[in-house]
Design a protein that fits this description.
The chain has no helices and eight strands. The chain is mainly beta. The relative contact order is 0.30.
Length: about 100
């Protein structure tokens, strides 16, 4: 995580640094910035303390952890700038899979 400002996600929220967009196709064509697809994968930088079980008052721990590489939905989360770098804050529900 970048130096300076730190963000601690709350409850079931997760902070994800999106992977870099491809700059070149498999056949060698360079892509302009406007045509690059935003990757739907990234590395988890921080996680919250879990969702609240309203019946017991206990926290339900998240199934993902810092350092996991994940695949998430196309429109997942909210993009924010953290020390001039874009990161996503999303719910654990937006995570589709953990990449081993």
């Amino acid at each position: 995580m970048a130096k300076g400002i730190k963000i601690k996600p709350l409850h079931d929220k997760i902070l994800v640094r999106r992977d870099e967009a491809e700059t070149q196709t498999d056949s060698g064509i360079f892509l302009p910035e406007s045509s690059k697809d935003k990757p739907k994968t990234g590395i988890i930088e921080a996680v919250g303390d879990g969702a609240l079980n309203t019946e017991t008052g206990q926290r339900i721990p998240l199934t993902v952890k810092r350092g996991d590489r994940v695949i998430f939905t196309s429109y997942a989360g909210t993009e924010v700038k953290l020390n001039d770098e874009p990161v996503l804050i999303m719910s654990e529900d937006d995570i589709l899979a953990v990449v081993d």
